[in-house]
Design a protein that fits this description.
Elongation Factor Tu (Ef-tu), domain 3, FAD/NAD(P)-binding domain, single chain, 8-stranded mixed sheet, binds flavin-adenine dinucleotide, alpha+beta, 615 residues
């Protein structure tokens, strides 16, 4: 084994969506960072759908951007169709989504990594994470090189002992076309980590020229929905449409008559898959009364004819895939370029990481992305940036950044991962957040940019911009609550007028230009939302504050739950397993009842750490 002569502060393993954000955050915080990945041609590869964002996922991309991450900027300049999902509903659930030119996305992200100071991007397959006295000291690669470092962020995705299934055939791989990571799984087990098994799947890709678009509905994009709060001035790519079609009765018959050949139904697949993202065989079986299922035909890029058939992920054999795809009128002559498949992989079972994303038992080892049991590019990137920041914080001797549930979807996700066991791959939904009206996609910069600035990722100029935006917003919300206008022979403040459903900031601006200022679309919109929803926002802010008092009640490390009289046995076991650091976390552990929490709180209020709560 040859030792690389220069030690690194931080090594990030895997340049997927989590790894790219982790490495960029750490390098921008001034750490000498190495991003080591199996194949430099697959940096930031979209393993499944060629799209970024969506409901709740789009919120997280905005949060990543607010913190100083890259995903939003890269999709802004590589998107080929943009839409704001849910825009007919309340603003809390609007979700920006973009179809990506997936090759352009990869190349753009790779180039940004290559240009980042303090960051080295190298090809290499990690086989071992080295520790001394339970602390990370380096890694070794399959190519016979060892690297010294002070901390590691591990983001190996679906690669750990990955096993691909297409019907009766299965083989090892990280995803189609990639090697699996087998040695690394064993290395993690040697470190004492407990691994479980999950599963996910992907649909076939077909050639565009083999689709009869006359039998589909066109779904054009909308005017550009920007993800990033910054404007890099990069022009957009040409925009394209997606198309909608449906499965048929024949599709259903073909699938049902071949269901025994699906490894999911024959029992070959042991890993647990996501219920919220069922395969087509699952849909046909579980929703047997449904006559047809919707399919989106999504182009994979501007310089390829490959089309992603969204809605028919499958692990059926190739011949059955071909039959059921060709049972759809628009796809009668479809040419499958890549077959659908399912993949099983190892993940680190919940309860082994702290809210900082550092392993509880191995100092300096941080985990982010699919390895923590999540599914999705945005979930991975959201953990990646936090793991990168916190690994850098550890090396620099600073406290970790832990986002609260009332501050960010990323905070909700990490809290869930730390306190809840998984019974399927974890994906973000708006329903997981208690304070949805506070966590809107449009205000992520106001909520989070200061954290990026304090970490050293966001520069002073960008930070000043958000401070100025906040100042204007607060001033205007106050001011418009004091300016009266005569309407229907009565006096109303502009704030009151804005609350009327027929009024918007733009209409009132046109009506009262002497009293209302035009600050540009972004700030005008914030003022409007803050006034229109003032009552609800205030209520949620008060609730979040009240909860925070209990939420942050500290549980000292190593607390002996056996010694707390009155706790139920199940609660004792769960609390010992997840080792929550606050009452808030303890409350969310399944199997811990409100009565257990009351008993625990009484015990804790006698603890001097929580003196402030007592006073
Ligand atoms: C078949 C399939 C279907 C999917 N379906 C969906 C879906 O429907 N919806 C959805 O949201 N998400 C889906 N995903 C998941 C999505 O791809 C992941 O959630 C996301 O990419 C995870 O990001 P990550 O950064 O954790 O890992 P990845 O993006 O998988 O990146 C892992 C990186 O680590 C590298 N690596 C692995 N082992 C090593 C090693 N030992 N040494 C060096 N480098 C290593 C790999 O080369 C890769 O670059 C699917 C994935 C697959 C494979």
């Amino acid at each position: 084994m040859w030792k690389f002569p220069v030690p690194y502060d931080l090594i990030v393993i895997g340049a997927g969506h989590a790894g790219c954000e982790a490495a960029l955050a750490s390098a921008r915080m001034g750490l000498k960072t190495l991003l080591l990945t199996m194949n430099l041609d697959t940096v930031a590869k979209m393993s499944c759908n060629p799209a970024v964002g969506g409901i709740a996922k789009g919120h997280m991309v905005r949060e990543i951007d607010a913190l100083g991450g890259e995903m939003g900027k890269v999709i802004d300049c590589t998107g080929i169709q943009y839409r704001m999902l849910n825009s007919t509903k309340g603003p809390a659930v609007w979700g920006p989504r973009a179809q990506a030119d997936k090759w352009a996305y990869q190349i753009e992200m790779k180039h940004r990594l290559e240009k980042t100071p303090n960051l080295d991007l190298k090809q290499g397959t990690i086989e071992d994470v080295l520790i001394q006295n339970n602390k990370v000291i380096g890694v070794t690669t399959k190519e016979g090189i060892s690297y010294d470092c002070q901390a590691v962020v591990l983001t190996s995705g679906t690669f750990l002992r990955g096993l691909l299934h297409i019907g009766e055939t299965n083989y090892s791989g990280g995803r189609a076309g990639d090697q699996p990571s087998v040695a690394l799984s064993s290395s993690l087990e040697k470190l004492g980590l407990q691994l479980g098994r999950l599963k996910t799947g992907t649909p076939p890709r077909i050639n565009r020229r083999s689709i009869d678009y006359t039998l589909t509905e066109e779904q054009p994009g909308e005017p550009w929905v920007k993800f990033s709060f910054d404007d890099e001035g990069i022009p957009r790519l040409p925009q394209v449409s997606c198309h909608i079609t449906y499965t048929t009765e024949e599709t259903k018959k073909i699938i049902l008559s071949n269901i025994h050949r699906s490894p999911m139904y024959s029992g070959k697949i042991k890993g647990i898959g996501p219920r919220y993202c069922p395969s087509i065989e699952d849909k046909v079986v579980r929703f047997s009364d449904k006559e047809r299922h919707q399919i989106f035909l999504e182009p994979e890029g501007l310089h390829t004819e490959e089309v992603y058939v969204n809605g028919v992920s499958s692990s059926l054999p190739f011949d059955v895939q071909l039959q059921f795809i060709r049972s759809i009128p628009a796809l009668r002559n479809a040419e499958i370029m890549r077959p659908a498949y399912a993949i099983e992989y190892d993940y680190v079972i919940s309860g082994q990481i702290q809210p900082s994303l550092e392993c509880k038992t191995v100092e300096g080892l941080f985990l982010a992305g699919q390895i923590n049991g999540t599914s999705g590019y945005e979930e991975a990137a959201g953990q990646g940036i936090i793991a990168g920041i916190n690994a850098a914080n550890r090396v620099q001797g600073r406290p970790p950044l832990i986002l609260q549930r009332s501050e960010a979807y990323i905070g909700v996700m990490i809290d869930d991962l730390v306190t809840k066991g998984l019974d399927e791959p974890y994906r973000m939904f708006t329903s997981r957040a208690e304070h949805r009206l506070l966590l809107r996609q449009d205000n992520a910069d106001l909520r989070l940019r200061h954290y990026g600035y304090e970490a050293g990722i966001i520069d002073g100029q960008r930070y000043q911009r958000v401070c100025e935006k906040k100042r204007i917003l607060e001033e205007e919300v106050r001011r418009l609550g004091k300016i009266f206008k005569q309407v229907d022979a009565k006096g109303y403040t502009i704030a009151q007028l804005l609350c009327r459903p027929e009024n918007t900031y733009a209409t009132l601006l046109a009506q009262y230009p002497e009293s209302i200022q035009d600050f540009g679309e972004e700030i005008n919109f914030q003022i409007e939302l803050n006034l229109k929803y003032a009552g609800y926002i205030d209520r949620q802010t008060q609730e979040a504050k009240k909860l925070a008092n209990v939420e942050n009640l500290v549980i000292p490390p190593g607390l002996d739950y056996q010694s707390i009289h009155g706790l139920r046995n199940e609660a004792r076991q769960k609390l010992a397993k997840f080792a929550p650091t606050t009452i808030g976390q303890a409350q969310r552990i399944s199997g811990v009842s409100p009565a257990d929490i009351s008993i625990l709180m009484i015990a804790l209020l006698r603890n001097p750490v929580n003196d402030e709560m007592n006073s």
